[in-house]
Amino acid sequence: MPTKAPEDSYTAEPFLPDRGGLPALRRAAADCHGCPLHLDATQTVFGAGTAHARVMIVGEQPGDQEDRQGKPFVGPAGKLLDRALAEAGIDPGDAYVTNAVKHFKFTQAEPRKRRIHKAPTLREMTACGPWLAAELAVVEPELIVVLGATAGTALLGSSFRVTQERGAVLEREIHGREERLVATVHPSSVLRSDDREAAYQGLVSDLRVAARALG
Fold first, then answer.
1. Is residue 4's pLDDT more than 60?
2. How is residue 106 annotated by DSSP?
3. 93-144: per-residue pLDDT in tens?
4. Which are the contacts of 24, defined by CB distance < 8 A and separation ≥ 6?
5. What is 152-182 written as a DSSP string?
6. By the 8 A CB rule, do 187 and 201 touch?
7. What ranges make up the beta strands (E) of 19-142?
8. Which single residue of 26, 49, 135, 196 has CA 20 to 30 Å from 97?
9. How many contiguous H segments (helices) and E segments (strands) does the chain have?
10. End-to-end CA gap in the chain
């Protein structure tokens, strides 16, 4: 097994291509060894969608189904997100969807047991940051929708709190670009909620703010 590099040396930077659009980034990301998460994940799960998307949706990391299929937001949370976007007035097909971290991080009690999602560390998120910066530079979205605390921390820093900043249009400098953002909960938290309907309506309400901001 490859030796794990010390945490302070984690970075995807050496794996980024010198030029090219999303296809070049996707090919390069498939071979990213910028942090140890690639050792256990099935594959890199890069963003999906058109380079001309008006809105970029940023989640935390791939889940179990995403890791197996190699595509973002194809599991239960992704299906719920598509429904919420459509209800809010945003065509899911017009969005570019990606994650702050491109490999599935999980715990597993023993082989063949269910793989349980584990939150990435701040260092792992920072290591993966160059991929997200490159996606933003290519897509140049009019608006970023931030799903959940991990994505918010990756984009806005460790002081970000989704409960305090959700449902409002924020203006921040992200990776050297002035961006407009709307934060909301991650759809997986809706699926875990004791009051799923209320949590879902809260997500839709936040996404309507994003839809109005897009005009």
1. no
2. E
3. 899 999 999 999 999 878 778 898 899 998 999 999 999 999 999 999 999 9
4. 17
5. HHHHH-TT--HHHHBTSEEEEEETTEEEEEE
6. no
7. 55-59, 95-99, 106-107, 116-117
8. 196
9. 8, 7
10. 51
